[in-house]
Amino acid sequence: MERKLNKNQIEALQLIKDEQDNVGPGFCVLKWYHLEMHLGTGRSHSCYHCPTQKIPLGSDLHNTPQKIEKRAEMLQGNKPSECSYCWEVEDLGEISDRQTLAVQFFKHNRDIVKEATEAGIGYVYPKYLEISFTNKCQMACSYCGPVFSTMWEKEIEEHGPYKLSEDYNLIHTPQIENSPYISKFWKWFPQAYKHLFVLRVTGGEPLLDKNTYKLLEYVKDNPKDGLTFHCNSNLMVTKERVARYINLVKDIPNTRLYASIVSWGEQAEYIRHGLKVDHFEDNLIRILGNGIEVGIMCTFNFLSIFNIKEFIYKMAEMKQQFPHLTIDMPYMVDPKHLSAQIADDTHISIMEEGLKLMKTYPQFTKGEVVKFQKSVEWIKANRFTGDELIKHRKDFWNFVKEHDKRRGTDFNKAFDVKFDESKNT
Fold first, then answer.
1. Which residues pair with 38 in a beta bridge?
2. d(C-alpha 141, C-alpha 303), whole Å
3. What is the pTM of this model?
């Protein structure tokens, strides 16, 4: 049976939009109170939809000149172009992340819009902090790159970028050896910590880095009422590292791990190079079995479409055993040659069948279904056409061929489908 947001949920999300729109049609509280920092490169952004910006070494880590400029634009009633992801979704009549991601801020403080507008362009601390200490990672996912993965970095240094219509995965933002931003962070963090209600650590692979465990120990030794602690992981670390993580977080209230996987079986292992699904599942069960909440992050891309039904079935099966497992399936925009925007009508039908299947499983919440439905509708409305479609499909095929050559993989075997290169389909 199809499930939709109920009247109260829709009204609450509309209220969030209305309150922000009263300041300006581009106003978003995340620009004030949501911070994602990549200390290995010295870059940050207000949410994952916005491009990262360099943090000047002489600047505050959060209140950078660029961010202050964007806050001023919002207060003046403008829509910063870097936030176009949400405007495009709202133009389709759908609920944007400017609403859904703001929910937690409204729950934390019902007057959050007033607090932000009164702060204006003055100094504020983030309330939601996502931190990456390094790009150290033992995987090289197809849609990732050297800025987030040392395996990708090593490949590009050895073989160079992928020769697509434009060079793909050039090392534009190299990691800073002995990054001064890490020491700057540890000086800034104790005061910032007092203002947080969400703290999230990401990577690279966080469970490979010593700073992650230092952060976990700080949180454990300095309990803070109302704090939620999140950690991202690809779950391809050793069981010993997983055990260390469990021992540090099991007594921290409101802790959650976010695990990344975008399909299941051999296809998932192709997309996320270095993944072994059995090892991933063992570690996932180990963490869930200790009562720790886990959120599955499925960065939905073109290659996710082919095995969507098995993926949904597997997630429903896991949720049946562990109700504290959740799933989110946001659509991927970049890289464009792997975006579902290159899909044809057959792929769209597979995706729609996957959505229908998801709606039949009572294990999925209304919110989980609605989020995937939003992705499906956006992809359908934003498919590439004409020369742009031809270019990105050709890039896709060239990427796959080079991927198989460099990594010894076999796309046709993994996906049981052969693309006709002459038609770029």
1. 43, 132
2. 12
3. 0.83
